[in-house]
Amino acid sequence: MTVHHDARQDLPVWQIFLIFLRLGLTSFGGPVAHISYFREEFVVRRKWLSDATYGDLVALCQFVPGPASSQVGMGIGMSLGGFPGAFAAWIGFTMPSAIVLVALGLGLAGGNLAATGPMIWGLKLVAVGVVAHALWGMARSLCPDIPRAVVAIISAALMIAFSGAGMQAIVIVGGLVAGTLFLQADLVKLDGKLAAGISPKVAVFALAIFGVLLIGLPLLVQITSSSWLAVFDGFYRSGALVFGGGHVVLPLLQEAVVAPGWVDTDMFLAGYGATQAVPGPIFTFAAYLGAVMQTDTGGIAGAMIALIAIFLPAFLLVIGLLPFWDRIRHMPKMRAGLAGINAAVVGLLASVLYDPIWTGSIHDVKDVVIAIIAFTILQWRLMPVWALVLAGGTGGIVMGYFGVAGTVV
């Protein structure tokens, strides 16, 4: 088959699904690693996309809220097979980790949490090291100078003092404004053209649906008092308002499920730790949370609702913004604003490291030492994240057997 760069290929949906299923089964390491796997598969190996087109797609998905690597996968699927291709890409990449996490959630929810306490303790301590390592890497990359470091510090302080989804949105908008006013734009020459095969009318319609759901769902929840609608709204807002994806979704998900009492803190942190041990997007953590909710909306049905709701904004934004990205990505002020948003994201991650990760996991010197060891292992690349998480859970079980594990509070 002759393949032309920068044009939709209209590949069979089943072929797109199988490719992304394999990636979903093997893509360990988080969003940055996923993006590298995608490039190797579609740019280097198969040559179905040019480097320029792929780079533009990645840039867009880093700018908009949502799970960056999943959005890149959706964009690739759409370029290769239209809307069915985008859906096939999402299903293939998301399904493996979602199934594992739902099974884990059902097992924990149906069992005795105290009996799994040592394992949860180990997973929570590893989570401290994982988030600290992610924060260190992002800070070095996204805050290389004093102005961006200041934006990050102010963002972290605001989130710690005034936590909540509303404050996260304020911090992100503040980063955009600060970047536009005070930061230097990246003037690197951009080339290549995105080709998604989406008409402007369809794009505008998708953006309209995104906005209507974001504004209308909370109103409907108040009017109807539906628990199912409340769950859908909580996860939809988490997917719609988080910038940076990955670990940064934690405060929004915590606000959505822990604050109203749907999931307790121990189950939340245990699931987050387990999410690090599976391949695929971190946003599949939502499937686990949906499964363990202590309401009538839990179980498999809750997992499906949570998973669809948290990824729906990503679909709508990819569809709505791809046709217009070429028009705005060359604007210097927009690129400076993006630098400010990235710095604010570092601050958000720092606030997450403090609360709930640190405050919910570290209780004595032994906990501090284990968290530092986990961070050091990741920093020196002594083992991959998934292996470290498995070691943390197993180590917790072993230490619990000998009576030296910490407590889950």
From TrEMBL:
One of its GO terms (molecular function) is chromate transmembrane transporter activity. Keywords: Cell membrane, Membrane, Transmembrane, Transmembrane helix. It comes from the Bacteria. One of its GO terms (cellular component) is plasma membrane. It is a multi-pass membrane protein. InterPro entries: Chr_Tranpt_l_chain (IPR014047), Chromate_transpt (IPR003370). Its main location: membrane. The keyword Cell membrane applies. The chain crosses the membrane at residues 12-38, 87-108, 120-138, 150-183, 203-223, 235-253, 300-324, 336-354, 385-404. It is found in: Cell membrane. PANTHER family: CHROMATE ION TRANSPORTER (EUROFUNG). Belongs to the chromate ion transporter (CHR) (TC 2.A.51) family. This is Chromate transporter.
